[in-house]
Amino acid sequence: MKYLIRYLIDFAVLIVLYAFVFFRKWRTQGRDSLLVNTLMYAYLSLVLYFTMMPVVVSIPSMLDHPYSPMNLAPFIDVSLGRGDFLRQVFLNVIMTLPFGFLFPLTRDKRANFGVTVFSCFLMSLGIELLQPFFDRSSDITDLITNVIGGALGYGLYAIFKPVTFWVLERLKTR
Question: Would you say the pTM of this structure is higher than 0.70?
Answer without folding.
Answer: yes
